[in-house]
Amino acid sequence: MPQEEITFDGYTTRNAGSLRRIAIQGERGSNSHMAALEMLGAIEVVPCSVSAEVIDAVLAERVDAAVLPIENSLHGSVAEHYDLLLEHPVRIDAESLLRIRHNLIAAPGVRLEEIRSVLSHPVALSQCRRFLAEFTQAKAMPFYDTAGSVKHLMEAGLRDTAGVAPALAAKEYGAAVLVEGIEDHAENYTRFHLLRRSEDARAAGLAAANKLTLAFAVEHRPGTLVAALERLRDVGVDLTKIESRPVPGKPWEYVFYVELRYVGEAMADSAVGALAAHCGMVKELGRYAAA
Asked: Rounded to two decimals, what is the model's pTM?
């Protein structure tokens, strides 16, 4: 079934049918909210305080799916989310790329020269260092969430404070954008995953899969990782990413995560089988269309 196209603030979104209630980490108006809209279209977003709460909402069936960031082009991987994928019975059904735009946002009518404090998530502040270094009239202060900073300044009626957040946050909370695009690097993208319960049927309308994420562990001895990667090479898949995470309780041992591009389900099945024959643990984390 083709996806229904919907226009949202100048870009096209696509509705994936049955996925209507989506959990995100952070507040409404955040980049995760924007990614969910771009990926799925007209949805109800359920904000969660922490990522573990997002996964709990999925597993308890309080939501149909979740959208979580997995990697930023400047800051790298979100390690916690790899751990959650391994620990819980969820799978990746889709991915998307969102260009990250940071904006200086304040209450309506506030002038730029009135700002004395700038709030945002520490990562967002670090991605706007040049602007903040030149904006000497104000002190940058870390906050729990980008969109949350705008929500806070509006609820508290602050007239000397701005937040750094997506433009959607200004729309969501009735604030105003003072300065657009204050990020240091224009080529700033975050990759997001759409997560569902492992037992759920694949949602109608999602693009055909051509990418596979696997987690695996090898014996802690010389050559085992190389041998595992050689088996993937022999199958013919294209290795696009490899990530390692420590095994809790086993110092200096690691779980490896790989992302593979493939042609045809038979090739994906062969990749899983090749690793299973060599590794002590293999978990398939999802098959989905590459962004």
From this structure: 0.89
